Amino acid sequence: MAEQTQTTQAPRSTAPAGGFRGPRTGAPRTGGRPGGAGGDRRGGPRKGGGRPERVKPEFEQKTLSIRRVTRVVSGGRRFSFSVVLAIGDKKGTMGIGIGKAGDTTLAIQKAYNDAKKNTIRVKLNDKGTIAHDVAAKYKSARVTLMPNTGRGVVVGSAMRVVVELGGLTDITGRVMSGSKNKLNIAQATIKALSTFAMPKKARSEAVVVVKE
User: Fold this and answer.
1) Contact 107, 97 (CB under 8 A)
2) What value does the mean pLDDT take over residues 168-191?
3) CATH 3.30.160.20 fits 60-120, yes or no
4) Which CATH class is domain 121-198?
5) Burial of residue 190 (number of CB atoms within 10 Å: 0-12, 13-18, 19+)
6) What integer pLDDT is reported at residue 147 of this predicted model?
7) Beta-ladder partners of 80
8) Other CB atoms closer than 10 Å to residue 83's CB: what's the count?
9) d(CA 169, CA 149)
């Protein structure tokens, strides 16, 4: 007769998977943040009433291009960043600035300061557009701007950035040259809109607030 073998399984352990944890007690847990969800580390309420509100900047800004440029000196090559920035308040004021520095943050700040010095304020009509067609040329870039009625902003390239930051809502624009340089196209757009720019004296009188 064939021998019959019987296997027996070892009894399962009743101990927890993480090892022996000891007997449970009735004391509450103390692993949370002291002071509760709204308190500080010492258990008291927070002071100051939260973070201060962020101040809204005077102009909105948008970067047109960032390039890494190289300058050859006697000791070798020095790298820096060149930034072209467009700013505007969407109420008729706009400007273009250029900044160069070894850090992109510093270059953007320089471009912003340069753009504030070169801002223009365009006189818009009640429809949010210019009065008539205008064309301008800056270096190799040629642009044409035309008012439209209810068609919105129909422009492209860097022109769209300048027009939207300036607050124009119904305008059509075309780049008449083969240039794709965003700086030249933006400068040509600013030059074309300068036809409707208010003089500096009128701009200063417009921003004066009379105190009673």
Assistant:
1) no
2) 93
3) yes
4) alpha beta
5) buried
6) 93
7) 69
8) 24
9) 10
